Amino acid sequence: MYIMKCSDGTLYTGWTTDFKARVATHNSGRGAKYTRARLPVTPVYVEFVEDRSTGLKREHAIKKLTRKAKCQLIESDKNEL
């Protein structure tokens, strides 16, 4: 599970099984439609989870958070970046 900061200052949340490859995909313009128009993106938060199901649930929960709460998460000790 990850959060990227886009060039316009917005935050994008996603999940992947290969974090480094996903960052490269986003920055090459082949990632999510949202990030394509906001390149480059910079990883600001990573949280490793045990399986896909947990990752998707965690992504969904984080997407519901306010920007302020996401920024607090980025600064927290849960950040594995």
Q: What labels would you give this structure?
A:
GIY-YIG endonuclease; three-stranded antiparallel beta sheet; 3 strands; alpha+beta; 41% helix; 81 residues; 4 helices
What does this structure look like?
The chain has one domain (2-74): 3-Layer(aba) Sandwich (GIY-YIG endonuclease). It contains 4 helices and 3 strands, in the order ββααβαα. It has helices spanning 19-27, 33-36, 52-63, 67-74, and strands at 2-5, 11-14, 42-46. Strand 1 and strand 2 form a beta hairpin. The chain is globular and about 25 Å long. The model has no long low-confidence stretch (mean pLDDT 95).
For this structure, what is the CATH class? Alpha Beta
What low-confidence regions span 5 or more consecutive residues with pLDDT below 50?
none
Strand order of the largest sheet: 2-1-3
Query: How much strand content do the residues show?
Result: 15-25%
| Residues in helix, % | 40-55%
Total of helices: 4
CATH topology: GIY-YIG endonuclease
Q: Whole-Å distance between the termini?
A: 11 Å
Main structural class = alpha+beta
Largest sheet: 3 strands, antiparallel
Question: Helix-strand pattern, N to C?
Answer: EEHHEHH
Radius of gyration: 12 Å
